[in-house]
Design brief:
There is one protein chain. By secondary structure, the chain is of the alpha/beta class. Helices cover about 40% and strands about 15% of the residues. The chain has helices at about 20-30, 40-55, 70-85, 110-125, 160-185, 210-220, 225-235, 265-280, and strands at about 10-15, 35-40, 60-65, 85-90, 130-140, 190-195, 250, 255. An 8-stranded mixed beta sheet has the order 3-2-1-4-5-6-7-8, with helices on both faces. Helix 4 (about 110-125) runs parallel beside helix 5 and helix 5 crosses helix 8. The chain is globular and about 50 Å long. The termini are far apart.
Length: about 280
């Protein structure tokens, strides 16, 4: 559908590899201006050149940021707000998995910080910049079924498992989307999330050799980044989902997530806790 994003601005995180890179390239090819976040200056510069080659008419731009600390999230949000005063699509996509527990300078467990708090903080800061009819699209995962949220141990200080903590962060993404959609009712802005599928990317490359080996065995069964990005691009651009909000999608279809992901009381509690941790209004 070339040209369907003509004149629109897409802000996206995690755009220098995997499904984020593919989605950014596809949306640029459809006419969009892309403003993205990158941690690595070399990858950021290379991605900017790629976007310019795809759609040279658009003033693509990027912000350098490591979204692991609250200060960096807020600084990135402010920089994005300046570079993109009018946002048509905000795609929260950056994420990671770690086989041992890491704690950030804010005392947050790193998976929770990157995979959930960065979504929350950037979205809250950029909400005033969202255009009428704007779309917020957040990458979650079917891995949410393996997660649970213990509000008494939200930073996994008592118990840590790679898949459990990652699954909990993806559960947070769905609960965040549900709570956000309720807050956006009547505004014309929508919020949805998605499961991209198992995708053959560099995701998991920072894990221990044993888990990397397992990922390597499974990779022939995985989707390509373009296939994994398809639902993200669909939610960002398709007229078929215009006005639809609060959903969890897989293979372009509205899908029912786990019972834990449909717990609106937990969604509201997570929202309040996240606002308190970030020092932002709820």
């Amino acid at each position: 559908m070339p040209g369907t994003m003509e004149g629109k601005t897409v802000v996206i995180t995690g755009a220098t590899s995997g499904i984020g890179e593919s989605a950014a390239g596809t949306l640029a090819g459809m006419g969009a201006r892309i403003v993205f976040v990158a941690r690595d200056p070399g990858k950021g510069s290379a991605m900017l050149e790629r976007l310019r080659s795809i759609n040279p008419a658009a003033a693509h731009d990027w912000v350098e940021a490591d979204l692991s600390t609250l200060a960096a999230m807020k600084a990135a949000g402010a920089a994005l707000a300046e570079k993109a005063p009018r946002i048509d699509v905000l795609a929260n996509n950056a994420g990671a998995m770690f086989d041992v527990r890491h704690e950030t300078a804010d005392g947050l467990e790193l998976t929770f910080a990157l995979n959930h708090m960065a979504y929350f903080v950037l979205t809250q800061i950029l909400r005033p910049n969202l255009a009428a009819g704007a779309r917020i699209v957040s990458t979650s995962s079917a891995a949410h079924v393996a997660g649970s949220i213990d509000f008494d141990d939200l930073q996994s200080t008592r118990r840590y498992s790679t898949l459990g903590v990652y699954g909990a962060s993806k559960l947070c993404n769905i609960l965040f989307t549900r709570a956000l959609a309720r807050r956006l009712e009547g505004s014309g802005v929508t919020a949805n999330c998605l499961h991209p599928g198992g995708v053959s990317t560099s995701f998991g490359s920072n894990l221990k050799p044993g888990m990397r080996f397992v990922f390597g065995l499974l990779k022939p069964l995985f989707l390509t980044p373009a296939q994994g990005a398809d639902t993200l691009v669909y939610l960002a651009s398709s007229d078929a989902v215009a006005g639809k909000s609060g959903g969890y999608y897989a293979k372009r279809r509205l899908t029912t997530p786990s019972a834990a992901a449909r717990d609106d009381a937990a969604a509201e509690r997570l929202w309040q806790v996240s606002a308190d941790l970030a020092g932002l209004p709820a």
